[in-house]
Amino acid sequence: MTLEGLEPGTRARIVAVDWGRLAPEDGVRLRALGLDAGARVAVAHRGVFGGRDPLAIMIGRMTVALRRSHAAAMEVEYL
């Protein structure tokens, strides 16, 4: 399952990231925010309009806005 598919309030751990699907500068930014394999995350909210973009992701005590296309590159497992 990917991070994009999690429902709000669901906790998970990132098990793999397909960095090849992301632009190099996006990968650098996401790693700097701690969004890499092993990170524990939860979906806090989803956008309300048609594409349901962006996702609000909780990582630790930080909330990060993440595009659905970025979340789709992250494989997760439920905690």
From TrEMBL:
Domain of life of the source: Bacteria
One MF term in the entry's GO annotations: transition metal ion binding
Identify the keywords attached in UniProt to this record, alphabetized.
Answer: Iron
According to the entry, every stretch annotated as the Ferrous iron transporter FeoA-like domain falls at: 1-78
Taken from the record, one Pfam family name reads FeoA
Name of the protein: FeoA domain protein
Native source species? Tsuneonella dongtanensis
